[in-house]
3-carboxy-cis,cis-muconate cycloisomerase (Halomonas shengliensis), 442 residues
Amino acid sequence: MPASLLQHPFMSASALAECNAEAMVQAMLAFELGLAEVQEARGAVPEGASRRMRETLEAHAFDPQAIAAGIASGGNAAIPFVKQARAALPDDLKRFFHQGATSQDVVDSALMVVLAPRLTALDALLVRCRAAAIALMEAHAGTVMVGRTLMQQALPITFGVKVAHWAIGLEQARRRLAGCELPVQFGGAVGVHSGWDGQGLDFMDALGERLGLSTPVLPWHTDRQPIHALGTALDAVAGAAEKLALDVALLTQTELGEVAEPSAPGMGESSSMPHKRNPVRCALIRGATRQVHGHATVLLNAAAQPLERGLGEWHAEWAPLLDSALLLEGALEQAAVLLEGLEVHPETMRRNLAATGGGIMAEPVARRLAPLLGQEAAKRVSAEAAETARRQGIAYAAALEAHPEVQGRLTAETLAEVTEPSLYIGSSRAQVRRAIAWLEGE
């Protein structure tokens, strides 16, 4: 697969550099050395053995390609890794290496170790998005724009409240992701620390602390709730980021032009149409997040695993879990830049409010006319005046004032007020204030 051309552009370059085969090998090594250390501290390994293991194996050049080749016969990376490590150790240490562990203990724990810095990076990016969104909300709390339902003009809102919904979605997902635990895995062959009795749980707890991972209630070989929770939390962030990108992309359309992506040399250019400024950041965000949605499906379908060890379900989790984190990090890097540099065009928003000849204000006009004309007549008159304004290119207030059923019933000042979009934005400003308070209140 030409991953550098088709997959990696959607991911974080810095994350890719850190999250590779060598990182997985080092995470598996951290598990094994940590296990030896906690076992030595409890008398299950001779004194000094864990230090000698560390000195030998940290200096050893593991062969990731050979480990990868060995997966075909063993089914996972831990088996060839353990073989390489044991081969590098002095004979008197070999039997104390990987003591009481099984392959799933190594792989699951190593994946959690590899994922830990990725979750930290995701949280930092989401905090960055939150700060940029708050700045936009404060700047545009009163910037009136068209609110659209079913892709059509509906009633006025403010751009600030639109950004508030993006920000709240991202922050809700951030808090959900922050609540996910990365638990250590240690249970041995069938998850009951065979041969170690009650000491096995003590090993597990101490190992989790040493690796900076959380401690599960029990080994979770076929209890995949931690993976289910993490996968769905990653997908929730993806959904919030995709919502942002979708809205921005729609608002950048030539006929709308209410916002634009941050400009950069060559960014958004077309291969054949020099005039275009494509919303490429939005495309990259949506391309990445849609892949995360697909990976979440794999993780959800692997939640029920048989007996004491998964047969293919466990194996299917590895790539989707790591890829989701890498894709999401790439998407959020783009989202942060997008929010920090988003170009907002209030004058175009104002122009689009008048695109229907003032018809966007027909609902409040009908409400104002109803006590004078009756409900049905008020709706008809407000619509007729809007159509007149659209056809003749005149102000909606003027069309209403000239309507025979309105003449003399409302003053010009009242008509100007009832047709002014900025005076019909409901709780938009209050929602922005409330959203900012919630976002800053953590």
